[in-house]
Amino acid sequence: MLKIINKKMIVAQGTVMGVLLSGTSQAHAQVGDNDFSVIAENIADSVEELPGLLSAFAYMIGLLMGVLGVLKIKDHVENPSQTQLKDGAIRLAAGGALFALPMLFESMQNTIGLTNNLVEPAELEGATFRIRP
Prior knowledge:
The structure is a single chain. With 133 residues, the protein is mainly alpha-helical. It has a domain at 51-113. It is built from 4 helices and no strands. Helix 1 (2-22) packs antiparallel against helix 3 (50-78). The mean pLDDT is 77.
């Protein structure tokens, strides 16, 4: 049963990755435009899609690792001498970490300031002291 699930998951992941990678970017330079600014712009436009691709990959692999972890724990319950409990626990922990990775990336970007959703510190525009002589 585990082999059937693995084959189906691999086919599904391949299909999703094929769909994600088949989208073409609008940043294609003309044949005569080979200066550095056009090349740099094309690279920047191509790299913009990378975080989304990595997030999709992390979600898919995290979900797969979670399912495999549950199946390993099931195998341990059925035959404890054959399958150790740590095998399923490690897969569950790795799946949870991969599933949380895109949220961690987003919070790091917000903290560092790579997105527009920044919380700026308060600025002091002026101070008045009411001191009486």
